[in-house]
Structures are given as structure tokens and as C-alpha cells.
């Protein structure tokens, strides 16, 4: 009888402890101001995109094999495939891929998040972006997976947009916890962008085969397109710029993008949606997100 009573007491306290821990964990995720939750959930859209693009490019598979719990059953990306990369670039891209997996996990530890949205990372979509950037159709169509240079150019298209979003989010965050997380994410995203730009800058004057167009020209036209879609002036710069636009107006080289004081540009979620949808309109999905991005902010613009 005493043993049964002791077992019952132990079970009661064990159950109480588990409930308390669960409640604490739930409160841990919901203790942020609602606006902070929205601003932390929104970049999951970009992190999903980067994770899938880098995983497929380096390994030939995506989150469904590497970290299915983070994808949460979201639809498989359209068009991802293994890129034809040399050993160095593949190693760099693989590191980026696993960093993005960590970013997804870090955000989802802080806010509930949402399943992976439908993504389009097909060669055809990247070709469409490049054609729009140059305002004519390249022949043959640009293929991001064909070789290392093409893949780096395609990579130039993606992380920088998320980077500017983090810069724009920080002044609007209220809690120290959210600010710390976004600052940490921004640090790594900025480093990734610097590596991509550095590798491309090394090849700035190289012609991208089979086109008679240099790497620097690709970056300038892609940046111009993003500025056009974002509709808020210059917040994007290629690797080689007019002298007045270079650091302190003293160099055409522009390995790191920045404003007149070499401070990072910022973007709002509205501007980011215009760019990643490829429509110039935050209410009209398309581009990398055929069915639209997710999270409260993105859904708000679709209704």
C-alpha cells in the first residue's frame, strides 16, 4: 500500500513537471511581441529558398532528406538539381546549405513558423530572371546548374535580398531576444554574400560562356532589375559601378555593396515580396513563390 501510494505521488509530480515544462516551452515561443513574431517568421520564406537552392546545388537533394522536420511536409521545390561544381565551390555551397538549415532551426526555436512554401528553383525560372535583367532572351537560356560561374551568378540573386531584409527588420524589433537572433542571422547572411561577391569579383572580367557578357555585367543587370522591382531607388549594386557610386567615389570596384557611407542597404517585407515574386507587386505571387510566400505579413498582402 505504501509502495503504491509512493508510486502515485511520484507519477503525479512527474506529470506536473512535464506539464510545467511544456507550458514553459510554449510561453517561450509566444512571449515575444506580436510584431516581433511577424518579423521573425517572414524571413523563413527566404531561408527556405536559400536552404533548398544550396542543398540541391551541392548535394542533389533538399530538406526532405537532410532535415524533413524543418520542411514540415511543405511541397517539394520545383526544379532543384545537383549543380556541376568544382571541388572548392561545391564545398563553399555545401557549407552555406548547412548554415541555412541552422537558420531555419534557430528561427523555429523562437517562433512557431510555417511549413516550407512552394518554391521554384528551376533552371527555367533563373533563365527568366536573367532574360528580364538584360531585357532580351539569352541563347541558349541561362542555366544556373551548368557550371560554377553560372551557379555563383544564380547565388548572387538570392541571399542578398534576405540580408537587406534583416537590416530593415532590426530597427522595428522590440525585444532584445528578437534583435539578438536577427543580428546573428544577419552576420552570417552578410558573410555568405561577401563570399559570393568575392568569388565573382575575382572573375569580374571573365566572359560567361557562351555569351559575350562578363560576370560584372551580369551582376549589374541583376542588381538593376531588383532596384526596378523594389521600386525604392538604389538598394542594390553590381560588382563594378560608376565612380560616383563606388566607396568614397574613389573606385569602380564594389566587392561589397553599400550606400554613400558604405552602410548596408535595408529593405522592407513589401519591397522583398515585389522582388522575389518577380512581379514588382507584393500582392501578386510568382517567381520563386508560385503560390505566394507564407507568414502573417505575406498572407496579409494576398487578401
Automatic annotation (TrEMBL):
Protein name stated in the entry: Desiccation-related protein PCC13-62
One Pfam family it belongs to: Ferritin_2
Alphabetical keyword list: Signal
Lineage: Eukaryota, Viridiplantae, Streptophyta, Embryophyta, Tracheophyta
InterPro entries per record: Pigment-catalase-like
Matching PANTHER family: DESICCATION-LIKE PROTEIN (PTHR31694:SF12)
Signal peptide residue numbers: 1-25
Organism: Rhynchospora tenuis
Amino acid at each position: 500500500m505504501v509502495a503504491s501510494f509512493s508510486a502515485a505521488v511520484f507519477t503525479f509530480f512527474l506529470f506536473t513537471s512535464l506539464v510545467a515544462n511544456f507550458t514553459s516551452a510554449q510561453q517561450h515561443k509566444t512571449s515575444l511581441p506580436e510584431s516581433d513574431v511577424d518579423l521573425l517568421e517572414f524571413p523563413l520564406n527566404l531561408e527556405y529558398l536559400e536552404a533548398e537552392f544550396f542543398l540541391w546545388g551541392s548535394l542533389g537533394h533538399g530538406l526532405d532528406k537532410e532535415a524533413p522536420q524543418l520542411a514540415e511536409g511543405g511541397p517539394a521545390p520545383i526544379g532543384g538539381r545537383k549543380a556541376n561544381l568544382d571541388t572548392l565551390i561545391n564545398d563553399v555551397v555545401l557549407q552555406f546549405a548547412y548554415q541555412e538549415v541552422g537558420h531555419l532551426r534557430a528561427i523555429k526555436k523562437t517562433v512557431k513558423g510555417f511549413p516550407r512554401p512552394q518554391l521554384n528553383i528551376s533552371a527555367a525560372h533563373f533563365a527568366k530572371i536573367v532574360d528580364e535583367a538584360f531585357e532580351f532572351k539569352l541563347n541558349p537560356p541561362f542555366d544556373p546548374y551548368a557550371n560554377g560561374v553560372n551557379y555563383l551568378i544564380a547565388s548572387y540573386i538570392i541571399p542578398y535580398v534576405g540580408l537587406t531584409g534583416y537590416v530593415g527588420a532590426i530597427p522595428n524589433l522590440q525585444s532584445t531576444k528578437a534583435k539578438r537572433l536577427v543580428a546573428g542571422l544577419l552576420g552570417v547572411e552578410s558573410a555568405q554574400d561577401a563570399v559570393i561577391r568575392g568569388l565573382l569579383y575575382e572573375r569580374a572580367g571573365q566572359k560567361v560562356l557562351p555569351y559575350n557578357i562578363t560576370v560584372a555585367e551580369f551582376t549589374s543587370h541583376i542588381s538593376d532589375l531588383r532596384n526596378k522591382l523594389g521600386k525604392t531607388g538604389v538598394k542594390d549594386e553590381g560588382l563594378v559601378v560608376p565612380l560616383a557610386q563606388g566607396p568614397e567615389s574613389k573606385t569602380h570596384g564594389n566587392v561589397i555593396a553599400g550606400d554613400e557611407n558604405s552602410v548596408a542597404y535595408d529593405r522592407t517585407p513589401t519591397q522583398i515580396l515585389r522582388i522575389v515574386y518577380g512581379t514588382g507587386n507584393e500582392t501578386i505571387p510568382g517567381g520563386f513563390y508560385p503560390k505566394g510566400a507564407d507568414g502573417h505579413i505575406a498572407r496579409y498582402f494576398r487578401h
